[in-house]
Design a protein that fits this description.
Blueprint (H helix, E strand, L loop, with lengths): L9 E3 L6 E3 L3 E6 L5 E4 L7 E6 L2 H10 L1 H6 L5 H13 L3
Antiparallel strand pairs: 1-2, 3-4, 3-5
């Protein structure tokens, strides 16, 4: 019996506007309490926004306030630093 082709979920990067498979992106979440954090599991509850695993795009997101616009709230600089750390360390 042939293997079924599973549909790969695509998500849009808030910086580059590219549609990419979830594995190539990092999820940032804003939960009900208004906390904004990097979701390395991809399963945290709340509104998610995705950024491509590319340090230059994270820096561009900070400059353009891309995550601020996606969440309608001020995103702390520590979130961008954590995104860069996740990319650098290759977490997940």
């Amino acid at each position: 019996m042939p293997k079924k082709n599973r549909k790969i979920p695509l998500r849009k990067c808030v910086v580059s506007q590219e549609r990419l498979p979830k594995e190539e992106l990092i999820r940032v979440v804003k939960n009900k309490e208004g906390e904004i954090f990097v979701d390395t599991t991809g399963k945290a509850h709340g509104r998610g926004a995705y950024v491509k695993k590319d340090a230059s795009l994270v820096k561009r997101a900070l400059k353009k306030n891309a995550l601020d616009k996606a969440f309608g709230a001020k995103v702390p600089e520590s979130v961008y630093e954590e995104l860069l750390a996740v990319i650098r360390d290759g977490t997940r």
